[in-house]
Amino acid sequence: MSAPVLEATNLSKEFPVHGRGSRGTTVKAVQNANVTLHKGSIVALVGESGSGKTTVARMLALAYPQTAGTIRLNGAEVSHARNAERSYFRQVQLIFQDPFASLNPLHKVRYTLGRALRIHQRGLRGKELEEQTLELLRKVNLTPVEQFIDKFPHELSGGQRQRIVIARALAVRPSVLLGDEPISMLDVSIRLDILNLLAKLRDEEGLALLYITHDIASARYLCDTIQVMYAGQMVEGGPRESVIQSPKHPYTKLLLDSSPDPGRSLRSGDAGLFDVAGDLGEPPNLVDPPSGCQFHPRCPFAMDECRQTFPERTEFPDGQWAHCWLHQKDRGHVLEGNT
Ligand SMILES: Nc1ncnc2c1ncn2[C@@H]1O[C@H](COP(=O)(O)OP(=O)(O)OP(=O)(O)O)[C@@H](O)[C@H]1O
């Protein structure tokens, strides 16, 4: 495999808690997270609400400084010198959940995209600017392009707005897209179209993508690699089918069991698709998280070790890995079956 485009190692984030009596208290939002993104490949970061996915994305986008850990873009550690940051911001683009909030309601598509294009190509104007704007609209499948270029955000549907947000990100020719739940606020009927667009951008533009979701079925549909987060800790990861067919962490198994059948065809148009069903129970309080593996209070297989120490990473032959004491204790077989 080619060298990583973006690589984060042992990233941690603690947020200070404000208020009376909370001096020195922090929310341990992310602990020792590793993410590696390659050109032409999509990694899913899957976990329930509050597991730290957005915080990881924001650290990767330099929107939050990390408490610990390193980020490397094309092998070079991220420097906070102003010029270096500017180049980083161009190469790493973040796409949010809500396409309406991401667009200025007073600006037409032509202005929004033109402005982004000129960030990368300062002298761009006139016919060339128009041509490149139209080309961006084609790339995100908003055709016939003439119908869209002079629209305001409120004249577009949610899916069309998210395509404009993606086109604006592409305008600066990034190498990495970070999509934070990019389909979760869209109508079910168009979610698949946006996932297909992201897949096309991976294949045709060679982008490296991080796809953040609470829904493992959409991760399976889109992504090459899946990583699972629980309460700020990365608990499992690996090639998509290995993680889905043979989860190595009890939390991944719970997510799969609570999800609408991830094996069901996404072409079925099932309205419930991409929404986690079932009761996953309460995630822990990250101000005072459980010791050891944070999943242990909910884990049917919890042992003494789980309460004491977060387990080392166990590697499996096909690139799958997990942090779970079951494997350290040769008890991984208890996870087999029923997924
Ligand atoms: N700015 C902040 N200040 C304090 N705590 C924060 C801040 N941002 C996030 N947190 C806390 O960090 C933890 C992780 O939050 P985060 O938003 O990263 O999770 P998430 O998996 O993206 O969830 P969601 O899908 O709901 O956005 C949560 O406990 C959250 O309350």
What do you see in this structure?
- With 339 residues, the chain is an alpha/beta fold.
- The protein has a domain at 4-106 and 152-246: 3-Layer(aba) Sandwich (Rossmann fold).
- The chain is 33% helix and 20% strand.
- It contains twelve helices and twelve strands.
- The strands form two sheets. An eight-stranded mixed β-sheet has the order 6-7-8-3-9-10-12-11, sandwiched between helices. Strands 2-1-4-5 form a four-stranded antiparallel β-sheet, covered by helices on one side.
- Helix 4 (109-120) crosses helix 5 and helix 4 (109-120) runs parallel beside helix 6.
- The two termini are 30 Å apart.
- 41% of the residues are buried.
- Mean pLDDT is 90; it is low at 262-278.
- Bound molecules: adenosine-5'-triphosphate.
- Adenosine-5'-triphosphate binds at residues 15, 27, 29, 47, 49-55, 214, 286.
Keywords:
339 residues; alpha/beta; Rossmann fold; eight-stranded mixed beta sheet; four-stranded antiparallel beta sheet; 12 helices; 20% strand; globular; binds adenosine-5'-triphosphate
What is the count of β-strands?
12
CATH arch. level architecture of the domain at 4-106 and 152-246: 3-Layer(aba) Sandwich
Mean pLDDT: 90
**Which residues form runs of ≥5 with pLDDT under 50?**
262-278
CA gyration radius, whole angstroms: 21 Å
Order of helices and strands: EEEHEEHEHHHHEHEHEEHHHEEH
And the CATH topology of the domain at 4-106 and 152-246? Rossmann fold
Lateral strand order in the biggest sheet: 6-7-8-3-9-10-12-11
Attached small molecules: adenosine-5'-triphosphate
